[in-house]
Design a protein that fits this description.
Layout (H helix, E strand, L loop, with lengths): L1 H17 L2 H10 L13 H8 L1 H25 L3 H16 L12 H11 L4 H15 L2 H21 L5 H17 L1 H9 L9
Helix pairs in contact: 1-4, 1-5, 2-3, 2-4, 3-4, 4-5, 4-6, 5-6, 5-9, 7-8, 8-9
Length: about 200
């Protein structure tokens, strides 16, 4: 029976993550589809480029909240660390490959931060510092996302060794980091080539 519960919260997490704040906000606010601009993603950075700062902020906050919601729902429905991690990973996957948008979406950074708020809020400040410092320094959202993802994985591992987090959270950190880096493959290629786009508003 518990396996069925895990399957259900995973599916629920995916559906929550699949709700595209970037698409909805851009359509409502500016009447545009962010998938038709720049990177073609629906996350905060591409919404910033295509629709402006206001829609981008609303998108980022909404994406964070849906990550939190996925974990909270798993906690309420099942109540185990494994269920929360499964729902969190599914939410990031849904954000990146939304069933409502032809399996397209964002890169997972904001949704991942939301999941962290639910799973391990003590890790969030370290991730936030990495994102802000690298983002402001390099003015590249992709590099900030990479820094945040790697910092998360390392911080969760350290937290486990300090007996502050269960090992399943380390699993989340490694897999979520891998998912984000996978989505950022084109950006990583441009970083290596020195042609990555900068974000003026950072």
């Amino acid at each position: 029976m518990q396996i069925l519960h895990y399957v259900l919260v995973t599916l629920l997490g995916y559906l929550v993550g699949s709700f595209s704040n970037g698409y909805v906000v851009s359509r409502w606010w500016k009447g545009i589809d962010p998938r038709e601009y720049a990177s073609g993603r629906t996350g905060g950075t591409n919404v910033l480029r295509s629709a402006g700062l206001g829609p981008a902020v609303v998108t980022a906050v909404g994406d964070i909240l849906k990550g939190v919601l996925a974990v909270v729902l798993a906690r309420l429905l099942v109540g185990t660390d494994t269920a929360e991690v499964l729902a969190g990973l599914a939410a990031v996957l849904g954000h990146n490959h939304s069933i409502f948008l032809g399996f397209k979406g964002g890169a997972g950074t904001s949704a991942n931060i939301g999941v962290l708020f639910g799973l391990a809020p003590h890790i969030v400040p370290f991730v936030a510092i990495a994102v802000v410092v690298v983002g402001l320094g390099a003015r590249m959202a992709s590099l900030a996302s990479i820094a945040g993802a790697v910092t998360m994985a390392v911080a969760l591992a350290v937290s486990f060794f300090l007996s502050r987090s269960p090992v399943i959270h380390v699993v989340y950190g490694v897999l979520a980091c891998a998912m984000i880096l996978f989505e950022l493959r084109p950006n990583i290629a441009r970083l290596r080539a020195g042609t990555e786009r900068r974000v003026d508003h950072l």
